[in-house]
Amino acid sequence: MKKIVFSDDKILLNGDLSYKDRQFCVVFADLSRKNSTIDFSSLVSIDYACAILLANFRDKTGAKFINMSEKISLIFALVDDKKIDKSAILKPKRENFFAILGRNFALFWQHFIPLCSFLGEFIINFFKAFLTPKNFRAKELSNYIKDSGINAVFIVLLTSFLIGIVLAYLGSAMLAQFGASIFIVDIMGVLTLREIAPLIGAIVVAGRSASSFAAQIGVMKITEEVDAMKTMGLDPFKFLVLPRVLAMIIALPVVIFLADLVSVFGQMLVSKNILDIGFSEYLGRFKDSIELRHLYVGLVKAPFFGAAIALIGCFRGFEVSQNAQSLGEKTTISVVNAIFAVIAIDSVFAVFFMWYGV
């Protein structure tokens, strides 16, 4: 039986009409018949796409609908209610500066409170671990030292070596203009030990380890391993967070110390090839003019860098919800937050040491 039957003054609809019916779509999209009467008495069902097409046909040609059942009438009533005059839609007002500032501050505060709670929980568990050594996870600690410290040594040393070469090359070109090439040892030595090597090492480790911690814990949340640990009476913080943070606190000073050595070595190569300052002369000048406190300043900041990187990575990992998109977002945010935290901590230490003349 045909679903659309035409007569002189009436169009009869039969059976079940769906937007997938090609004949129906083609006919009513092209039909320009004026003042038609559409009979719904034999129609069993109709989908919303067909109803919208018929409503548009009615508005365009002035057609009349007759013999509609209650169910069909409700469908057309809903379709008619959805017709909105687009010209009446007001454009949203642009937010002013204070509204944007307030929203961003509220968003910052929303994330700052959980972070403080997370930090407080870490401090409590940190002291508990030393008060009860039997609960100390030495095996996991050694594994994380290997993953986050030893495995990161190569990329950190390579980066520090290249940065040391670049800085020494630029410094030598500038000092040579004033005949003060020998002072490159003093300037680059202090700059490398206090700022460059610690920052480069911490930033590289932050990009590598913060994302790793966030992804590992995030996957455990998605697969409900964290919930399973809680069900078995195990503390996820003690097993997942504490070993990672302690490993970063222990490993990062060693990594930064090696970065110091390699960066200075890169500067020695540039000085020998460009400024004709031999290794023995460079080391002699370095020993006489660079105080040991500059090395200590760089190493003192390393544990704080490591703690910040690990805490942010773990914190973002626990924020992951039950979907892959959230995992990618939190992993990316963890890297950005960790790098920002490293730079902020370094700035605080720089002001503090300058204030006290260290």
Quick recap of the structure?
With 358 residues, the chain is of the alpha/beta class.
Estimate what percentage of residues fall within beta strands: 5-15%
Please report the number of helical segments: 12
Q: Provide the spatial order of strands within the biggest beta sheet.
A: 1-2-3-4
Largest sheet: 4 strands, mixed
User: Residue ranges: pLDDT <50 for 5 or more in a row?
Assistant: 84-90
The helix/strand order is EEHEHEHHHHHHHHHH
Q: Radius of gyration from the CA trace?
A: 35 Å
- Indicate the structural class: alpha/beta
* Helix content, binned percent: over 70%
Average residue pLDDT: 80
Outline the secondary-structure elements.
Blueprint: E1 4-6, E2 11-17, H1 22-30, E3 37-46, H2 48-61, E4 64-66, H3 70-81, H4 97-131, H5 138-148, H6 153-176, H7 184-222, H8 225-231, H9 236-274, H10 279-289, H11 292-318, H12 324-355
Parallel strand pairs: 2-3, 3-4
Antiparallel strand pairs: 1-2
Describe this entry's structure for a reader:
- This protein has helices spanning 22-30, 48-61, 70-81, 97-131, 138-148, 153-176, 184-222, 225-231, 236-274, 279-289, 292-318, 324-355, and strands at 4-6, 11-17, 37-46, 64-66.
- By secondary structure, it is α/β, with parallel strands linked by helices.
- The chain folds into 2 domains: 4-88, Transcription Regulator spoIIAA (2-Layer Sandwich), CATH 3.30.750.24; 132-355, no CATH class.
- The chain has a 4-stranded mixed β-sheet.
- The termini are far apart.
